[in-house]
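Review form for a predicted model. The reviewer records the input and the model, then writes brief findings.
Reviewer: anonymous (R2)
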Amino acid sequence: MNVHDFSALDISGNERKLSEFAGKVLLIVNTASACGFTPQYGGLQELQDNYAGDLVVLGFPCNQFGAQESGTNEEIASFCDLNFKVGFPLFAKIEVNGAGAHPLYKYLTHEVPGILGTKAVKWNFTKFLVGRDGIPISRYAPGTTPAAIEQDIVRAIGD
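Model under review:
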C-alpha cells in the first residue's frame, strides 16, 4: 500500500485518485485559512512553482484545530486564490484525526509518526513528504516552513 492507492474529493467535489500523481514527489499538507501558519501557503506555492514537473503540493483543508477553517469549500478556494494565487491542487475539507479521519491521513500518520511516535496530527500545516513511489519519507511540524524542507524535497526529486 502507498499514497497512490487513495482518492479524495477535490475542492470542487470531484473524486481524484492520487495515482494520477505517481512519479511525482508529493508534499501533503493539512491547511487552514485563519491560522498563524496560513502565510505558508505562499511558500508552498513557491515550492510548487520552483519544482513544477517533479513536485506536487496537495492541500487538504481541515477545521479540527481551533476552528480555523470554518468556510465552505468554495470560500476556501476563493481565499487561497485571492490571497496566495494557489495553483496546486486543493481538496475538499477533511478530518485528519479521530474516527472520522480521512483514510489517507490514517495511513500517513501510521507510516510517519510524529515526535515520540505520536500518530495524531498536532495542528494545521503539518506536512508529509512522499516519494515518487508513493511511500511517505518524512513528516514536518506545522512551524517548519516550506523553505526549511526544500533540501529534503530536492533529495527526494533526485532519488
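Findings: The chain has a mean pLDDT of 95.
Further findings: The two ends are 20 Å apart (CA to CA).
Recommendation: see findings above.
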